Structures are given as C-alpha cells and as structure tokens.
Amino acid sequence: MRLRTRAGAGAVATGLASILLATSASAAPAPGAPGAGDPYYPGAGNGGYDVQHYDIRLTYQPATDQLSGQTTILATTTQELSTLNLDFGLKVSSVRVNNAPAKFGKDAKDASELVVQPAKPLAKNQFVTIVVSYTDTPSQVVVDGATAWRKTPTGAEVVDEPFSSEWWYPANDHPTDKATFDVSVEVPDAVSAISNGTLVRKTKQRTGWTRWNWRSTQPQATYLAFLAVGNFEVLQSTTPSGQPFLSAYDPALGAALPAAKASIERTPEVTEFLATQFGPYPFEAQGGVASNAIGFALENQTRSVYGNSFWRNGSNTSVVAHEVAHQWFGDSVSLGKWSDIWLNEGFASYAEFLWSESIGEGTADELAEYLYNSYPADSAFWQVKPGDPGADKQFDAAVYDRGALAVHALRKAIGEESFFKLLQTWQAQKKGKHATIPEFIALAEKVSGKPLYDLFQTWLFTPGRPDFSPTGQSSAASAATVARAADGKPAEPKSWAKIQQTHADLAAHGHAHVHGTEAGRDF
C-alpha cells in the first residue's frame, strides 16, 4: 500500500517541461489532471480520459526478474487534451498515441507518473489508442517507499491494494475507471503465469517458452488485476453452474498444502451459497491461488490470491467466504473513493457470519455478540470510524470487525426481508460500476422505508462503542446473558477461531503496508 498524499504532479522530466508549460498556458486543449482527486490518495488515477480496455502482452524471465513488453490502452477522452498522465513506475522505451510516436517523460517528483504528449492534441470524446513499450526489473522499482512486485524462488507475484498496476502495466489507477482486460504473458516452460478471468489458450512460439493468455470480460478495477508466475500446481475443472474453475497451488506451502486445497477447492460451493444472499454471481469464471510469497489475501477479480498464513491451523473456508464475497462487494460494485472502504470490507467480513450460519458453526447473532464483547468499551478499536477511517487506518481491524457489526446492526434495524432485498438490489443496480456510502444509505432507507441516518452515523462515523445488542435483546438482557456466561463472556461459536484468525491476518497486512513492512491480512 502506498500513501499517495500529493495533490498532483510536480515538475516533469527535462525536455518535456517546456512543452507542457506552453500547452497548459493556452485555453484549450489542456493537460489531463494528474490525479482523480481521491481524498486519501489525490494523485491516484488521472483525469481527461476513460479507459475501456487494457491489452497487456509481456515476457517475463524469472532468472533475471526482467519484465518486458507492451500495453495497449483503448480509451475515450472526456475533454480536449494536450497531455495525459498514466500511472506507471517502470522504465518506458516508447509511447505511441493513435499510431503516432508521442513525447513522454516521468514526473520529477513522482516516478509513478508517466506524462504523455501526443503528436496532435486530442479532441473531446475522441477514441484513443495508447501503446506503451517497456523493460525493467520490477522488484527493484520502489514507489512511495513500497513495491507490490515480489520476487519468488521460481518467479514473481504482483498482488496488492490499493495499488499494484504501476509495477507491471500503465493504467488510470483508480477504481472509478474500470475496464476489461486481456493479459498475455510468456514465461519459461517450467513455470506457469496465472492471472484473472478465463484461460483462453496456451501457445508456444519458440523453444522453451509458453505464452499464457487470459481474458476478463467484465469491468475490473486496476488494482484487482494480478499476475503470479511460478512453479504452481494448476488444477482446472468446471463448476456445477458451468463456469471454468482454475486454481493454482505453490508446492512450497509444504504441510499446509492439503489445508489450502481443502479450502480453495470449495470456492464454487461458497459462491453458490453467497449468490443466494447477494444475487447472481457477477463474473464469468472462478478460482483461487495459494501463494507462499505473501501473508495476506486479496480478492483479485475471479481469482483471489491467498497467502500462507491462512492454513497454519488447518482448512479455513472463512477466508474463502470473505474473498468470494468481495466479488460482489468491491469487485463488481467498486468503491467510489478509498474512504468508502467499508462498502468492501464490512460486507465481506459479514459474509463470514452468513457462511458460518449456513454450515452450522455459529449464527450471525452469536458471532456478532461474541465480537462485540471482545472489545472493551475503552479499547482504541472503537475510536476508528469505519465510514472514514483515514488513509493510515484504511485496513484497521475496526474496518473489518466494527464494519461487520454495523452491517448486523442494519440487519436488525430493518428486518430480514428488507435486509436481503437491499443487498440484492444494491448489486443489481450497481453491477460493474462504482458507488459510495451515501448512495448505499439512500438505498437502504428507500428499500426499508425507515430513517437510518442515526444508525449509520453512530456505527460508521462516530468514535466510541455504540450501545448495541447483537442478539436483538434489550441492552440489559444482553448484558445479563453475558454476565451469566463463563468468565463474563458468551460461549465462543465454533467458527470464531477461523474468523478471528482471518481478520487478524487481514488487519496485520493493512498495518504492514501502510508502514512499509510485511505481515499478514485478508483484504
């Protein structure tokens, strides 16, 4: 995770600066904004164009960690443009815009901003083809003190949130500009190249090398595109619903490998259940990757990647439920700004409650009660606001745990019928788009017919422990129940250990990325 706090691009590389200054002095066309204006990461993303498709065609050599190739971007301008920015950290050899060579340079104050000067200014609403060629060693590229590219003994993995594209393809890197993807990666025969969507084909064009071709047909946020190259065991099958299911396992997991398989191979079952809660599964393929290179999990679209920490105590379908739930909450319906993170993590965490209830390992009421009473009233946990935690607390445990309790409080406030109607209506209306917390609150009030401002204000935006009875009893009755339990705590639900492990690993990863270290967490 990189903390992009800058307001925009600074001075540009020598040779391009005078061009940009002269262009920006005219009334129109004008440079595209160097950021999307996100409140947490103002420099993330760019303005002036909208991407429809990324075609990423690469060659990767694990022995040297060299990545080379081209990305073709299909976009439409949203204003008259003299220049445009792409978020990208690697060394670029050439850029072409609409088949003509373009001038380009890196921002002197931000190495992840690639500034492009087309040969001719671009008109508003113009279809644009941008081709960027590049070669670099991604593991040696550091942006804002971090890298999302991890070199492994047999390859590499690029998996991260909120930023990862800068280490392997140029992009408009913000969830509000989603696109479809073709990802084609050539690697030595001995290793695999795993990415999102459907594996459309594997081809050989030269001795010793195989090209893996992947296609994602539904709109996808840039940080959800991933690449994992290595000595994976790749399994392919078809789900009961007829979708391709592809999973990949790193043999280096050793004794934990069976537990990983026993969890990830149940992805179609978990998906089938969550579809009854949230509505139809929004994508064309399913799968998962068990990695030994990371200690967290991330909901990459159609194919989540799970780190090695989740299997240390045996199988863990709780984390699978969390990541599969993100396919609806976070992937299909993406956040409108990074401060809306509760829309991703609160509902993915609550999906673990729903899954636990469905397999008889603790009801949502029991889990919510246990979770609520696990944090004392004076705990710093209650000072974090899930609806606006701040960039430094974006993946704090409270975003997950208090976020899930907020969802349960909503369920209790509006009743079962309205609650599940709300979740399914939200998904149907926002599929393939991005959304904000105020939009969700408005829909919740419309579907339920109840005023909910106070509830959301209390749970999402007010520090302190809310007065809450997770079981639906009065506060006094709930307190009496807890007092009668052993050690003043309610009985621990069967699934609690897995959920707690999942959330602890997720929170640790969020903290680690903010502060530039590596731990383990489930996003």
Automatic annotation (TrEMBL):
Gene Ontology terms for molecular function: aminopeptidase activity
Keywords per UniProt: Aminopeptidase, Hydrolase, Metal-binding, Metalloprotease, Protease, Signal, Zinc
EC number: 3.4.11.2
Similarity comment text for this entry: Belongs to the peptidase M1 family.
Residues of the Aminopeptidase N-like N-terminal domain: 52-224
Ranges where the record places region Disordered: 470-495
Reaction it catalyzes: Release of an N-terminal amino acid, Xaa-|-Yaa- from a peptide, amide or arylamide. Xaa is preferably Ala, but may be most amino acids including Pro (slow action). When a terminal hydrophobic residue is followed by a prolyl residue, the two may be released as an intact Xaa-Pro dipeptide
InterPro entries, per the entry: Aminopeptidase_N-like_N, Aminopeptidase_N-like_N_sf, Peptidase_M1, Peptidase_M1_aminopeptidases, Peptidase_M1_dom, Peptidase_M4/M1_CTD_sf
Top-rank taxon, per record: Bacteria
Protein name, per record: Aminopeptidase N
